[in-house]
Input
Amino acid sequence: MLLGRRVAQDLNVRSGSLVLMGQWNGIELDGLVLHSGRLTLRPWQPPDAAALPALLADERIVEHLPLPWPYTAEDAQDFVTGHGQAGRTAGTRLDCAIAENSTGRLVGSASLRLPVGGHDSAEIGYWLAVPEWGNGYATEAVRTLARFGLDNGLARIEIRCEVPNAASAAVALRAGFRYEATRRAVLPGRDGPLDAAVFVRTATDPDEPVPPAWPRLTELSDGVVTVRPTGPQDWPVLLAEANNDASRQWGFGGEPMTEAIARQRARWSGLGRLTGGTNALLICDAATGAGAGILGLHRFGPPGVVMVGYGVLPEFRGRRFTTRALRLLTAWVFAETPTARIELGCKVDNVASARAALAAGFLAEGRHAGRLPNPDGSYSDELIFGMVRPAG
Output
């Protein structure tokens, strides 16, 4: 049956039944307001258009959002009177302006896309003005929308964020969403489709934060070296460390790393720290901030055991950077995680690596015959070093 244009605007057809304009599961969306401890999630209003360009003036906020840049007053007016209202009217989205309860000040945006047509789950999206980052507003807004949806019949809600957007992924975990998968080329990007990390919360999941795979590490330093998390911008250090002669000699494959692989590993490093077994870190010269090498923690053995790997660029060798970085990192691991034992290994002829391990406090524990592959296809013996949690 064909509906007239006016009727089609006033009604949605869903699963063969007519749904009144502005309703979802019997709930009127047009004027719906949600409240949390510090925030109000309300409909967008015409006066909000004046505030939006200033909230979106910092380019960092649109780095992972498919929004116009620069964001103009005309863009704001079009959104507030158009897209920001249309979902509520159609019963397909709950688009919300996020405002502080205490001041009424607009601080960001959150949206719950409701399942219609071929969609099998709902989806939450959000952004906050840069000055509001770090105060928990995004987590609070996401939890509020998730509770509304799950309390009113939704079985599953997703959050999808660009893989390098570790800050958004951290919000998802704090809001009780669990990492499910990475989907290839599903998000719109300025230069083409982007990979997305997918986080999910279901109606049967506990209403509590999901702990990250690794505790937060901002920076460790002894005044000579600094250890910090690897980020997307650090791919040149990964590329240089992998492709120098010594690294290829003591490595496994022998093939040079490509720039594409280095960029990918750097982009994925934040997600790995939050959801995976690897914590990729950078060794830096504390005086200049220059990247001097790589350091990685890996969980792939028995529970409570962590492996550590490392490499230093040629221009920083001979300055005990590896030993200093290992000391900083092992102290942090035992202080901040329940790890019982840290292990590392190196090829039997890699004297410099063995010396660094011993100087950092590891004990030589043995030798595995023919365990580590060489670039020429042969195998080298591996020296094993270990460190256990200090007593007391």
